[in-house]
Amino acid sequence: MRFELVFILLAGATFAQDYDLLLRGGRVIDPRNNRDGRFDVAIRAGLIAAVEPSIDPSRAKKTVDATGLLVTPGLIDLHVHVFFTGGNPGAWAGDNSVQPDAFSFRTGVTTMVDAGSSGWRNFELFRSTVIDRAHTRVFAMVNIAGFGMISDGTEQDDFSADAVAKLAAKHKDVIVGVKSAHYQKPDWDSVAEAVAAGTKANIPVMVDFGYFLPQRPYYKLVNEHLRPGDISTHMFRGPVPYVNEKGELYPYLLQARKRGVRFDVGHGGGSFVLRNAAGALKNGFYPDTISSDLHTGSMNGAFMDLPALMSKLMALGLPLREAIRATTSTPAEVIKHPELGTLSVGAIADVALLRVMEGEFGYWDNNSGKVMGKQRLFCEMTLKGGAVVWDWNGRLGVEFKTLGPTYGIRPGIDQILPPK
Description:
Layout: H1 2-16, E1 19-30, E2 35-44, E3 47-52, E4 60-65, E5 70-73, E6 75-80, E7 109-119, H2 123-131, E8 137-143, H3 161-170, E9 175-181, H4 189-201, E10 205-208, H5 218-225, E11 231-232, H6 251-259, E12 262-263, H7 274-282, H8 296-299, H9 306-315, H10 320-325, H11 329-334, E13 351-364, E14 370-384, E15 387-391
Parallel strand pairs: 1-4, 1-5, 6-7, 7-8, 8-9, 9-10, 10-11, 11-12
Antiparallel strand pairs: 1-2, 2-3, 5-13, 13-14, 14-15
Helix pairs in contact: 3-4
């Protein structure tokens, strides 16, 4: 009888550990659920299992103390270049692309969207060599030009809405949009063909206007050519007109947003001017999405990383919750993947733990403009699908002195001792 009682008690204790991991004591910001406050987050089998004011740590196999940290959905970078293939010197599809796992998790990013590095002729090479091999979740927007961004020259023709739509149907698990970029001619052919492809495939179009020409002004792009749900990236480039001489926002921007056009930051190596960002934010015109335009030329320049970009916009007046929204729930909505960008119970357990550092921080743009801020976001831990993929402070580690005599010795292999 006593043995049976002990067995029941032990079985009950094992059953009580119904969570794999508990994130305890952090400030949860989850825009999708309008949640901002101190909550515990429990994870089981790679999914969010519970979000409650307090969860008993004895119910979890492992617990992470998140006190003093922000707990947010894993960040989604809507505009990157990760087609890192050889043979294309100086190209976004080539030398300038970044290996996704080398930059994602350490910055809180769990999902990346490659913005048109590959076209409809070479997307399947991109998928087999990068997308399917990366631990980072990588989606793609297919370039309307056949060979994508192997050079600016390849993006001037070879458009096919039918080929892109066919490819998008075949690879609907990873293709989430169409890209038009770097077009230099005075007509609208690249944009028009991309929109036709997006319509056929029922996916959004992202346009990098690239070269601003009087024959195709920016206000016509966002008010006449883009559809609701389509995206204008590089929104804070120098040539984009934002405010008049009185500092008032031009009405065409509000008209475009009312139509449902999305505005994306896409900082990049030369597509962000503090003057434009400051004018927009002062008037309450916030980005729909904050993205990096990650490539080797931006990561070591004024952009740095996604948390730094969020911090830069916060220094200009963007509220913290808006910065989180624009890197989580809204980009998930844009790419039509609502299972991402949220800490809803049952959602994929992609999580970023960010520290808000206080101090004096300088941020600059691609034209040497500078602004000072009081806060800077820094990623301390990242989870993808419930697994810890970045742990800057070793929060899941155990004091090594407590690990016993077999610590560091592989099972089945005797330690060879020196002679006495």
